Amino acid sequence: MITSLLIANRGEIACRVIRTARRLGIRTIAVYSDADAGALHVHEADEAVHIGPSAARESYLRPEKILAAASATGAEAIHPGYGFLSENAEFAQAVMDAGIVWVGPNPSSITAMGLKDAAKKLMADAGVPVTPGYMGENQEPEALAGEAAKIGYPVLIKAVAGGGGKGMRLVEDPAAFIDALASCKREAASSFGNDHVLIEKYIASPRHIEVQVFGDSHGNVVHLFERDCSLQRRHQKVIEEAPAPGMDAATREALCAAAVRAARAVDYVGAGTIEFIADGSGALSADRIWFMEMNTRLQVEHPVTEEITGVDLVEWQLRVASGEPLPLSQEELTIDGWAMEARLYAEDPAKGFLPSTGRLELLQFGEAEGGRIDTGVYQGAEVSPFYDPMIAKVIAWGEDREEARERLGAMLEDSAVWPVRTNASFLVMALQHCDFAAGRVDTRLIGRDGEVLSQPPVPSDEALQTAAEALVPAVLAPGLRLNAAPARKAWFLLDGEKIEIALEGEGSEEPANGVLVTEQGQAWLLEPWRRDGAHGAAAGSGAILAPMPGKVIAVDVSEGQAVTKGQKLLTLEAMKMEHTLTAPFDGVVAELNAGAGQQVQVEALLARIEETA
Ligand code: ADP
Ligand code: ADP
Ligand code: MG
């Protein structure tokens, strides 16, 4: 077994690989860019090497920097994760040439599957059914239009070098073909440096079903069953599950056998995924499922397979790369229960899914039996604009599909992230969509009902009431109560928007300056509205507010004490980070509301310094 491993990636997948490597006693080496100096994968690795500026093309995508880091740290092997250099055959070759173990397939397998047209031809020759279409050399617009007519509309134009859902155009009307082709080629040239396209029959009611395959260097190839990734937004996966709803034993056997044939055709070693497109207009049947492409790496959604098979796929990758045979035979692999994964993103569905970057002041994940969180961030970390804004993969296992779906929904509903926006409530609504709940999934569901699913959620009246009570002073002295207190109307700011709330309770003895309302996987900041406009941080007032929810771990001053500007007042701890709060100017501690060990809300008034004249 290898004894040290460099992970040429970042975020959740780097952390995921580190977790298994550590369990196996392997020394781990992280690489990081400027933006990632404080990232979770850097904390979790045994060593970390800085590889350059924040932009990926100047750091994570630079083979020579990764190789230099490996040589400087004496790394025995390199794991590429997914994305970045994972499907770069030249990089894989360079790693091997440097005498380092490449945790992945042979470069020749990557090349064979790298272009969609060549891969489809290879698969057709190996007896694997491929999506009907044109994959020839002729790239003349008129010739391609002729091929599209022969295939029959609707058709899909696909960049042969495409990936990540980019470089694809659905054409439903022949009149739109030439324009769609030109725009697809432009996108392909700029994103992939290759403007060749293929034309495919657009499959009606498409379902994305893929098979996890695994090969070793002793000629063994097995499959680990299928995953259904049909819930997609713009050809990108949103929710994945295993097994696939409605998959019968005979169809599964035929599909998985085809996947193993596909892997064998390229002498596949390591973890790979064969992606198929299925006609979902009726029951699944092997003669209506076609090969689409192969991903020659670990897939984002690999956890759902791990959850139903009990296999740690990263462990298998490391064993196979070390020359060991596959730990289990095909007969020893079975499906236990059901698993579902949702990709929790820092993005705002209400604003066209624009990435939402910034500091994760609050980051809480819901918990459930059978639940699993794969994340690459922590509370207090930054979501930077440089990379994929994924916060976590939220995964749930259950005895059956319904249990997995309910657990995943509960985990997402109980998650709270602030002030960064997330797609959590969008995911919850997608899970509750009647078609999805019934297992009737196809890739166009979100396209059809996306507007409803991306409605911004609003907090419930109950939650607002409770929060508002904590923000207004008590009306009466404690102990004195009216039988039916008259409702008091008061103004508040909800995420900066002025709203009116009719209060029914008594208010609070010690009102807070702000309360985070968390519900439905979302978080909103409720603050008292002030006529003078001095909201929120009460700037310049000497108010010492908690910058995030956390625990007070030390108080260095007492009430009435004189302090000087910059003097340490107290220390707050919020997941893995300590924040020291200091005096903004010379003065006295006029108010002190914090004690060591106390949990505090964001913007809670911890202390107030009064300026000395
Ligand atoms: P999958 O089918 O597993 O979703 P994709 O081909 O869509 O695979 O891409 C794999 C993952 O790698 C995606 O989550 C994508 O965001 C990420 N990825 C791909 N290329 C890059 C890149 N250049 N930089 C950062 N992340 C990338
Ligand atoms: P990428 O390399 O971007 O992942 P794929 O070829 O895997 O490209 O296609 C991405 C998605 O596009 C699929 O998951 C599916 O939703 C859709 N798609 C691809 N080919 C077809 C097709 N022939 N008919 C219908 N939908 C398709
Ligand atoms: Mg794909």
UniProtKB/TrEMBL annotation:
Keywords: ATP-binding, Biotin, Ligase, Nucleotide-binding, Transit peptide. Gene3D superfamilies: 2.40.50.100, ATP-grasp fold, B domain. One of its GO terms (molecular function) is metal ion binding. Its cofactor is biotin. Residues 1-451 form the Biotin carboxylation domain. Residues 120-322 form the ATP-grasp domain. Residues 535-610 form the Lipoyl-binding domain. Pfam families: Biotin_carb_C (PF02785), Biotin_carb_N (PF00289), Biotin_lipoyl (PF00364), CPSase_L_D2 (PF02786). This is ATP-grasp domain-containing protein.
